[in-house]
Design goal:
The chain is of the alpha+beta class. The protein has two domains: 14-168 and 228-316, Bira Bifunctional Protein, Domain 2 (BirA Bifunctional Protein, domain 2), CATH 3.30.930; 329-417, Rossmann fold, CATH 3.40.50. The protein has helices at 14-34, 47-53, 59-64, 83-92, 137-153, 169-184, 192-200, 211-216, 229-244, 289-292, 307-316, 336-351, 365-374, 385-390, 411-417; strands at residues 37-38, 44-46, 67-69, 75-78, 102-111, 123-132, 160-165, 250-251, 263-270, 279-285, 300-306, 329-333, 356-358, 379-383, 393-397, 403-406. Strand 15 and strand 16 form a beta hairpin. It starts with 13 loop residues before the first helix and ends with a helix. The chain binds adenosine-5'-triphosphate and magnesium ion. Adenosine-5'-triphosphate (ATP) binds at residues 81, 112, 114, 119-121, 124, 126, 277, 279-282, 304-306, 308-309. Adenosine-5'-triphosphate is lined by residues 81, 112, 114, 119-121, 124, 126, 277, 279-282, 304-306, 308-309.
């Protein structure tokens, strides 16, 4: 136990962390270009927020939350998704009173008690964006384009964008009636979860991963045939925006985010290469959520993207994330005086932005040079008594083995010039 991380969690080791840094850097760049500002919310919230904001019929609330009572007797839940905390902060800090829309993004750990498998963890990480306050379909399209831009910049061109409209409380009411009528005959063959869904939120039956349920719903009536005029034109407008950006997409009436405050657009971005856990990104519009959470009646749209799944997809596609560059300069020393002197020299060069390494293990000169090779150092110098006295060093280019003699003060400029 002591030396084993909890089930469903993962360490990111130095041999992998550069990939995370690369992706996170790219996310921040793209969000900056698109005008999304970062929001950081706490790792835990009052449980009530998620009961409201995620909804009691969802898998997250029914089965997956890490909920506990703290020492003050409050019910607390580790963040199982990013949207409702962002909504809570938006309301709490009166961001709705500022010029709209509010465009937010986050990169956050997320906790869900699930059965761990590839692409399904108990702690995973999500990149998410939200636009609050804009009801136009262009906001939906903008959110989708952020996700698509990230994937494209990473070199993933073969993912499937699937879109749907789940209507609004008005048209969904009619559809739910038709769907329940359709499901009624097979009610006893639905899985236990779907029997509950049938009662509280029939739309979610379409989203069930159990094969027998999928078979039953194969010929179910489609929500897209029951949309009201407003929802229908919103959906058509979204498609126009996607078309004009040149994105391929598939209309998939089985994609649902099934709660009353999820409205209109629902979408997923799917990788066909990673099998069952293929959904890299899921999002949609939630025009009733801000009000549901105690704020003003304001629309919202956003997505959550699983970063572990994104990394798996990259790997499956043979896309390599550029490795960080090696050490610029290795400074070897000979003798006690040079040991001290090179320590200060390394510190000065590091302060000025050079990647410098030096031995901390009392290695022999030969072993120091071997270490320099191991570190992939671009240049190396050896400093002993004489070099210090004459203010002269041989700067060795490690890739070709050639040397030039320069003064110690010239090292920085020389390396920076190359
Ligand atoms: P799924 O149907 O796969 O359970 P979900 O509907 O629960 O997904 P969302 O709540 O929309 O997923 O979360 C957004 C994204 O976060 C998902 O598309 C996925 O990439 C990722 N994700 C969700 N749950 C996990 C998990 N347990 N482990 C790793 N990534 C996850
Ligand atoms: Mg899930």
């Amino acid at each position: 136990m002591l030396t084993k991380a909890p089930r469903g969690t993962k360490d990111v080791l130095p041999s992998e962390s550069y990939k995370w840094q690369y992706i996170e850097g790219l996310i921040r760049e793209i969000c900056d270009v698109y005008g999304f500002k970062e929001i950081r919310t706490p790792g835990f919230e009052h449980t009530e927020l998620f009961l409201r904001g995620v909804g009691e019929s969802t898998d997250i609330v029914r089965k997956e939350m890490y909920t506990f009572t703290d020492k003050g007797g409050r019910s607390i839940t580790l963040k199982p998704e990013g949207t409702s905390p962002a909504v809570r902060a938006f309301i709490e800090h009166n961001l709705y009173a500022e010029t709209q829309p509010t465009k937010l993004y986050y990169i956050t750990p997320v906790y869900r008690y699930e059965r761990p498998q590839s692409g399904r963890l108990r702690e995973h990480h999500q990149f998410g964006v939200e636009i609050f306050g804009a009801k136009s379909a262009s906001a939906d399209a903008e959110v989708i384009s952020v996700a698509m831009t990230l994937l494209k910049k990473l070199g993933l061109n073969n993912l499937e964008l699937r879109i749907n409209s789940v209507g609004c409380p008005v048209c969904r009411k009619n559809y739910n009636k038709v769907l329940k009528e359709f499901l009624k005959n097979n009610l006893e063959y639905l899985c236990d979860d779907c029997k509950v869904r049938y009662e509280i939120n029939p739309l979610r039956v379409l989203d069930c991963k159990v094969e027998s349920c999928q078979r039953i719903t194969k010929d179910a009536p489609l929500i897209t045939d029951y949309l009201c005029d407003d929802c229908k034109s919103h959906f058509e407008e979204l498609q126009k925006y996607l078309d004009i950006m040149g994105y391929d997409y598939i209309i998939d009436p089985r994609i649902v985010r099934g709660l009353d405050y999820y409205t209109k657009t629902a979408f997923e971005i799917i990788s066909k290469d990673i099998g069952a856990q293929g959904t890299v990104c899921g999002g949609g519009r939630y025009d009733g959520l801000i009000e549901e959470c105690g704020g003003p009646s304001m629309p919202g749209v956003g997505f959550g993207m699983g970063l572990e799944r994104l990394l798996i997809t990259l790997e499956q596609n043979g896309i390599e994330i550029p490795k960080p560059e090696g050490v610029d300069l290795f400074i070897a020393y000979v003798g006690e005086e040079a040991k001290l002197f090179t320590f200060a020299l390394a510190n000065k060069l590091r302060f000025n932005g050079l990647k410098v390494e030096r031995d901390n293990m009392d290695r022999s000169l030969k072993a120091q040079m071997k270490y320099a090779n191991k570190l992939n150092a671009k240049f190396a110098i050896v400093i002993g008594e004489e070099e210090m006295k004459e203010n002269k060093v041989k700067l060795k280019d490690m890739s070709v083995g050639s040397e030039v003699e320069i003064s110690i003060d010239e090292i920085e400029q020389r390396i920076k010039n190359i």
